[in-house]
Amino acid sequence: MSTFDLNHINIKITKGLRFRSAIADTMALFEVTGRQGRGAWRCVVVNEPWEMDGKTYPSDYAGTTRVFLTEEIVRHVAWEQYAKKCRDAHEAYYASLTVGQIVHYMNTRKEFVRCEVVEKDGKHVLKAIALVGDWYDIGYQEKKIRSGETFTPNYTCIYESPACNRERCAIDPTTAEPIDLGLRVAR
Questions:
Q1: Measured between alpha carbons, how far is 114 from 65 in angstroms, rounded to an integer?
Q2: Distance (Å, whole) CA 84 – CA 153
Q3: Kind plus residue range of the DSSP H or E element containing 114
Q4: What is the pLDDT of residues 99-118, one digit of tens each?
Q5: What does the radius of gyration of the chain's CA atoms come to, in whole angstroms?
Q6: Mapping DSSP to helix (H, G, I), strand (E, B) and coil, where does residue 78 land?
Q7: How many CB atoms lie within 10 A of CB 53?
Q8: Which of 173, 95, 172, 68 is nearest to 129 (CA)?
């Protein structure tokens, strides 16, 4: 289990600060409304209305109040900041790719999908073009190659990404020969 060193995180809690926390199966948006004694804060779930079939509904648990300890709020805010940093790095990596570039998605340490960077809806995505390595079951990935389906796996699973842990890889997929899929009989 990962933990944050809260001594090195500088987050000031004030009235109006917003963060997400779970209530049942909802990641509710809470807003700090004021102090609740020493080291604790009153918070309320913010209404985030949503629409379906032309009708607007309030979000789950809107108006629910809860008291959080300072440490809990700091953890929630720090986690959101970390998740945003990860999303931003992922998006920046894909934006740095060029159409036509070849990269390799690591399915497992011995199974890689060779991909071509293509553009879809104004963004760079990957299109599977071959399988390389020692595959146990190629059915799912073979269907993606044949259909031309595109995807955007996490950039840390792309062999060419500086964020990829290549020490986990059993092969160098950039020099591996593709698996011949031409002889496989369609089912």
A1: 50
A2: 17
A3: strand 111-120
A4: 999 999 999 999 999 999 99
A5: 23
A6: helix
A7: 4
A8: 173
**What's the predicted TM-score (pTM) here?**
0.76
In contact, 87 and 146? CB cutoff 8 Å: no
Task: Please indicate, yes or no, if residue 184 is contained in any of the structural domains.
Answer: no
74 shares a domain with 13:
yes
3-state secondary structure of 166: helix
Q: Are strands 65-69 and 111-120 parallel, antiparallel or unpaired?
A: unpaired
The pair of structure tokens assigned to 151 is: 């995807």
Instruction: Give me 159's structure tokens.
Output: 């062999």
Token pair listed for 161 = 């990404």
Neighbours of 167 (CB within 10 A): 6
Residue ranges making up the domain that contains 149 = 102-168
- 115-159 confidence digits (pLDDT tens): 999 999 999 999 999 999 999 999 999 999 999 999 999 999 999
Query: What is the number of H-type helices and E-type strands within the chain?
Result: 2, 10
Total domains in the chain come to: 2
Q: How far apart are CA 128 and CA 114, in angstroms?
A: 6
